[in-house]
Specification:
The chain is α/β, with parallel strands linked by helices. It folds into three domains: 2-236, P-loop containing nucleotide triphosphate hydrolases (Rossmann fold), CATH 3.40.50; 255-335 and 429-507, P-loop containing nucleotide triphosphate hydrolases (Rossmann fold, 3-Layer(aba) Sandwich); 344-419, no CATH class. 33% of the residues lie in helices and 23% in strands. The strands form six sheets. Strands 17-20-21-14-22-23-24 form a seven-stranded mixed beta sheet, with helices on both faces. The protein has a six-stranded mixed beta sheet with strand order 7-8-9-3-10-11, sandwiched between helices. Helix 4 crosses helix 5 and helix 13 packs across helix 14.
Length: 507
């Protein structure tokens, strides 16, 4: 790709960007959210046209005037936001648009279901997903859906595969399996363009690194020189200073230690589908992490605390008073807020503006004599945009046009505007760059320092260990162990997650 330029409504998303990917190579494409990575790969995949520039494959200039044209040239995209039909099963999603159902003279013919299922089963085995091809995609977890996306890309026998944050919702075992697939594809001569904000993945897999910043190509690094410091310096235009995982400090730099009675106490809470009840507690000013493999039941547990699904048994108290939300509104009224794992599906109303999304959970408080107080709404939205560093041209911008990281910041901002007592964060930094992660970590630590209790579900082991005061490790929808900070280690948490170590509670 040479001299690629793209503008949207007067805003330059890409300016004279060049990128070279070779056969049998893993090229890491890195940059902060909003740097232009997604726009660049959409142009490569025929999703969007470039305003200027040239694309060559095997040295020959090509015209990518649509997705079909890109696919015909062996280009496959795996988007950060999953592009699956939840009402169809796995096999139908993998072969959607290529089922081979055309009959003679253009007449419709029955779908070759048996052949589709056979090929789908082989692809699922290749990516390590142990689900029948006839399983509805709507019944899968986010991590399992990610594996279906990868299987769909592999089904096209692509020569160039772009993977945009492919491990963002995968467990350590699933990620390891994906890395094996990538290495085999590299051996087979496939070119991989790998987009990730996880430095350890990039340094493990990448042969080269290309970095974008503010829509421009700012550098290339070979495998040996691609250190974390050099990559970050290119991404943000400066070296990040200070602790990546900040300490919780109150005003005047007085360190707050979690103590006193629990704010939320959960006893034998039975979540639908779980074999047994779960118990835990969290205090004001404490960050309680939840670790576990995909399917361990962490999301289902925190959604029950938030009232998405009522508990089947057990009790909860909040601030010493009974707490049994039957719906999210009940939890919100008690000062409990949830930033969900799937921000586009459950955290935002995409056609609405930044300001409208910011006020939506608490729209009643903006009531002024029966009318919505737009001035107050704008003040709050502007404050949250400044507080979280949300990159948007205006608070009236529709959130669907923002990058994934900035969308996540809007989700956080709408809850922070309500001054929660208990904030639940489900995969809060999924698909977010290092600069934005550091900012979110600072905000979370500041909230804890002000006495907010935080439940944080994360599949990022470094994040869990770096941010949490205690960690609840879950396995098969049960609590496998509760560890105090002094007992943290990746090996110990991993052993509890996989069942290699017996359940334990450390104090």
């Amino acid at each position: 790709m040479h001299g690629i330029t793209k503008r949207f409504a007067g805003v330059t998303a890409l300016a004279d960007v060049s990128l070279t990917a070779r056969a049998g190579e893993v090229l890491a494409l890195m940059g902060e959210n909003g740097a232009g990575k997604s726009t660049l790969i959409k142009i490569l995949g025929g999703v969007q046209p470039a305003d200027a520039g040239e694309i060559r494959i095997d040295g020959r200039a090509v015209l990518l005037d649509g997705v079909r044209a890109a696919k015909s040239l062996g280009i496959a995209l795996i988007h950060q936001e999953l592009m699956l039909a939840p009402n169809l099963d796995i096999a139908a999603n993998i072969f959607l648009g290529g089922e081979g159902a055309g009959g003679p003279l253009g007449l419709l013919a029955p779908l070759p279901r048996a052949e589709m299922n056979r090929k789908a089963a082989a692809l699922l085995a290749r990516v390590g997903l142990d689900s029948p091809p006839t399983t509805p995609v709507g019944a899968l977890t986010v991590g399992q859906r990610q594996m279906v996306e990868i299987a769909r890309a592999l089904s096209a026998s692509a020569r160039i595969i772009v993977m945009d944050e492919p491990t963002s919702s995968l467990s350590a075992q699933e990620s390891a399996r994906l890395f094996e697939v990538i290495r085999q594809l590299r051996t087979d001569g496939v070119g991989i363009i790998y987009i990730s904000h996880r430095m350890e993945e990039v340094q493990l897999l990448a042969d080269r690194v290309t970095v974008l910043r503010d829509g421009r190509h700012v550098g290339d690094l070979g495998r040996q020189e691609a250190t974390t410091d050099k990559i970050v310096a290119l991404m943000v235009g400066r070296e990040l200073t200070g602790d990546y995982f900040p300490k919780k400090t109150a005003k005047g730099s007085e360190v707050i230690t979690a103590g006193g009675p629990p704010l939320l106490e959960v006893k034998d809470l039975l979540v639908p589908g779980a074999p047994a009840g779960v118990s835990f507690q969290v205090r004001r000013g404490e960050i309680l992490g939840f670790a576990g493999l995909v399917g361990a039941g962490r999301t289902e547990l925190v959604e029950t605390v938030f009232g998405v699904t009522p508990a089947r048994a057990g009790t909860m108290t909040l601030g010493g008073q009974p707490f049994a939300p039957r719906r999210p509104r009940d939890a919100i009224r008690r000062g409990v807020c949830l930033a969900p794992e799937d921000r586009k599906r459950n955290g935002l109303v995409l056609p609405m503006s930044v300001a409208e999304n910011s006020s939506l959970p608490n729209v009643g408080s903006y009531n002024r004599w029966g009318w919505l107080d737009r001035a107050a709404e704008r003040r709050v939205a502007k404050a949250e945009v400044a507080r979280l560093g949300i990159k948007t041209s205006s608070i009236t911008t529709k959130v669907v046009t923002l990058s994934g990281g900035n969308q996540q910041k809007v989700v956080l901002g709408k809850w922070l505007a309500m001054s929660p007592k208990l904030l639940i964060l489900d995969e809060p930094t999924r698909g977010i760059d290092v600069g934005a992660r550091a900012e979110i970590y600072r905000q979370v630590a500041a909230l804890a320092a002000d006495g907010v209790a935080i439940l944080m579900v994360s599949s990022d082991m470094e994040e869990v260990i770096g941010m949490s005061d205690r960690v609840v490790v879950m396995r098969e929808r049960r609590v496998a162990g509760v560890l105090e900070r002094a007992a943290f280690s990746q090996e110990r948490i991993g052993a509890l997650m996989t069942g290699a170590q017996k359940a334990e509670v450390s104090a």
